[in-house]
Amino acid sequence: MSIDVQTIFQIAGIGIIVAMIQTVLKQMGKDDWSQWVTLIGFVVILYMVASLIGDLFDKIRDVFLFNG
Amino acid sequence: MAIEILQIVGIGMVATFLALILNEHKPVFGLMLIIFVGALIFIFLIGKIEEIINTLEQLAVNAHLNIVYVETILKIVGIAYIAEFGVQIARDAGQGALASKIELAGKVIILVMAIPIITAIIKTVIGMIPQ
Fold first, then answer.
1. Which residues of A touch B49 (CB under 8 A)?
2. By C-alpha distance, which of B118, B90, B117 is closest to B103?
């Protein structure tokens, strides 16, 4: 439970930091770089969320849909 | 056991505030955060649901019920939970049409799974009718 709660803050932190980096890069005039930063941040978060949802589906399958 | 509701409410409120902040800059990340917290609460609850289901199964076995029917009902409950989860996520993301389709899929699949029970009921009723 506590590890997963940490992940909530990780996601929020990544989001805020990515927004910050994007602002800085835009002011430096590197719009294409800021796009890449957003994409990479999104992929990292998507990996976290997807692994948790996979976990959830496994558990639901165990509890409700036993024997497949 | 009762203290856990405080944990859930706390996590929910923290996630709500964080999502508010994230939505200002990056709405996609806010949505991801909400999905994550939803799955987290669901995983937390599934342990409790397992206990309830085990009790129900025990009751059914003690009452000499046909286990197939109990199993079907439990599967239907599971499908309803999963479908609801997906529908809420899609609706949060602003995809109302997709959410309706997921809902429809859940209903149809539940209906298909209920066919054996419906057949059994109809057979019983027909058997009661005097020839």
1. 63
2. B90
